[in-house]
Amino acid sequence: MGTPPKTGKPVTLTIDGFEVTVPEGTSVMRASMEAGIQIPRLCATDMVDAFGSCRLCMVEIEGRRGTPASCTTPVAPGMVVHTQTGKVQKLRKGVMELYISDHPLDCLTCSANGDCELQTQAGAVGLRDVRYTAPQAPVLANHFSARDTSGEANPLYKAKDSSNPYFTYDPAKCIVCSRCVRACEEVQGTFALTIEGRGFDSRVSPGAAFDDFLSSDCVSCGACVQACPTATLQEKSVIEKGTPTRSVVTTCAYCGVGCSFKAE
Ligand code: FES
Q1: With a cut of 0.95, is the ipTM above it?
Q2: pLDDT digits (tens, 9 = 90+) for 77-114
Q3: What is the 52 CA–ligand 1 centroid distance (Å)?
Q4: How far is the centre of ligand 1, averaged over its atoms, from the C-alpha of 58 (Å)?
Q5: Per DSSP, which regions of the chain are E strands?
């Protein structure tokens, strides 16, 4: 989603029967929010520019083929958008099912329980059952154990990286939405993160040349942690003490870059 345009020629369109007027260049998703209509989303956030990777925000637009991503589709005069047709609801549920098929279902004991966008959006699209199981995630206990029950090395295990003093990285919970990679680039300008591999093997990485986050180019600004929609990148203090009931955001004056820190 990124920052909404503040200026630009007014454009009037219709979303779910409501007439909305927004500045030219506004995305359909942003215009929907202006009209009080929430469209499910995972990769779009105010922190970074829209890049349309999760496909959860599909909508139907009269006169257009397919189901475009509302976060990357700009408004047009006279556009008629439908955000809740049976078709898009079914497609969103299917997309979410695929995300969940490769995600541990340990929500009740997860440190992000109640503060997880994946959990919230799964509820928003009405997902109750998952028909698919990723080949490497058939037994959830195995997901977290370096050894299987016979004591052999578990090929399904994706090791957690706790090398950074401030946050942990748990690849088993990553949905590869790329928000952290983009926050590192767009917010911090560091380019310390990348995506490695393909399909089920794809993962966020601090670069092939580095063993872990601590030895990488990461400057521990926390932008990636703030951008993460799951418990993949999480502050150690949150894991130890739980999600704060109240938080204050302050801007560090150390180097003038403008990194923000959350504190209870
Ligand atoms: Fe639009 Fe992810 S929110 S594609």
Answers
A1: yes
A2: 999 999 999 999 999 999 999 999 888 888 888 889 98
A3: 4
A4: 8
A5: 10-15, 18-23, 60-61, 80-82, 167-169, 194-196, 203-205, 233-235, 248-251, 260-263
How far apart (Å, rounded) are the C-alpha atoms in residues 153 and 159?
A: 12
* Phi and psi angles of residue 194, each rounded to the nearest 5 degrees, phi first: -150, 170
Given the CA of residue 177, which atom of ligand 1 is nearest to it? 2
pLDDT band of 153, cuts 50, 70, 90: low
Closest approach atom of ligand 1 to CA 55: 4
User: Which of 57, 118, 176 is the best mutation target for the ligand 1 pocket, counting ligand atoms within 8 Å of the beta carbon and taking the most?
Assistant: 57
Mean pLDDT of 34-52: 94
Q: What's the CA gap between 32 and 40, in Å, rounded? A: 11
Residues with CB under 6 A from ligand 1: 41-44, 52-57, 69, 71
In the reported structure, the alpha carbon of residue 44 is separated from the centroid of ligand 1 by a whole-number distance in angstroms of 5
Structural domains for the chain: 1-84 (3.10.20.740), 102-263 (3.30.70.20)
Tell me how far the alpha carbon of residue 51 lies from the centroid of ligand 1, in angstroms: 7
Looking at residue 63, its amino acid is G
For residue 54, which atom of ligand 1 is closest to its CA? 2
Report DSSP letters for 112-168, one per residue. Answer: TTTS-HHHHHHHHTT--------TT-SSHHHHT-SB-TTSSB-TT----B--SSSEE
Give the pLDDT mean for 17-35. Answer: 95
Q: What is the pLDDT of residue 126?
A: 93
d(CA 186, CA 6): 20
Q: How far apart are CA 116 and CA 122, in angstroms?
A: 10
